[in-house]
Design a protein that fits this description.
7-stranded mixed sheet, about 120 residues, 11 strands, single chain
């Protein structure tokens, strides 16, 4: 019942910055966790950063210190600020939203993905 719309992808030079935004619509399902995954060329989808219901954030080791995630559940949005970008950050980035009750996930939703390309 949740539709995710992503924006902000594009082409940037190494060392530059880019901001990804995601908006969740049809939020009657009550999502309480949002984050970002990415899929580099020829590789599997991997976690980039996530915000759980309590507000605690987690980051992949490869992006710690460079990326910052923030979310506003009242607005149903999540933002990924990406700084000091590297060519290895090139990937399709996917927004994810979930509804968790205790240790169980009661709903999981994905965006269509937005391309991020970092040139050297």
């Amino acid at each position: 019942q949740v539709q995710l719309v992503e924006s902000g992808g594009g082409l940037v030079q190494a060392g530059g910055s880019l901001t990804l935004d995601c908006a969740a619509y049809n939020r009657a399902a009550g999502i309480n966790a949002m984050g970002w995954y990415r899929q580099p060329p020829g590789k599997q989808r991997e976690l980039v950063a996530f915000v759980v219901g309590s507000g605690r954030t987690t980051y992949a080791d490869a992006v710690k210190g460079r990326f910052t995630i923030s979310r506003d559940l009242n607005k149903g949005t999540v933002t990924l600020q990406m700084n000091s970008l590297k060519p290895e950050d090139t990937a399709v980035y996917y927004c994810n939203a979930e509804r968790w009750i205790s240790t169980e996930v009661h709903g999981a939703y994905w965006g269509q993905g937005t391309q991020v390309t970092v040139s050297s």
